[in-house]
Amino acid sequence: MSEPRKIGRKDLNAYRRLRVAMLDEAPWAFASLPYIELSSHPSVVQQWLDDPGNELVVIDHPEKRGELASAVGIQRETKTQFRHKAVAWGVYTLPEYRGQGLGEAAMRYAIEVARSWGGVETLLLHVTGVASEALELYSQIGFETWGVEPDCVRLHGESYDVHRMRLSL
Known about the structure:
This protein has a 7-stranded mixed beta sheet with strand order 1-2-3-4-5-7-6, with helices on both faces. Helix 3 links the parallel strand 4 and strand 5. It is α+β, with helices and mostly antiparallel strands. It has a single domain, classed as 3-Layer(aba) Sandwich (Aminopeptidase), CATH 3.40.630. It has 4 helices and 7 strands.
């Protein structure tokens, strides 16, 4: 298994492909759809990454050189009164590599990155209730559910609850 690492400029096109795959496979889990997802464009991702309060953790595809198999985005809150918090977003592992530790390794690395940001004490994430394996993984890592928003996401006539989780760093 490849080790988690921070994304580099050379990875931007590979990340775009992974982002489109995640939005296509599980649109109910993310706040965007692939056909309207402008932030997947490599130049927009690079601009976002130029801010020191943003980071993407990735794991290389085990079989396809130049491709990615897993990713976790983290973003520090920008408002002064919330700077003690960061948010994990866009957490995804290709389906064929789930259950092999890639998602956990990427999340644990992202947690360490958030810890390295001076003053960040809490990492938040949101996960759709139908993603039971993800909920279980986050709980094992130490995240606690502090609330559930019923009917948070509606897509194609389906309603999804979202679990709000936090990890004290």
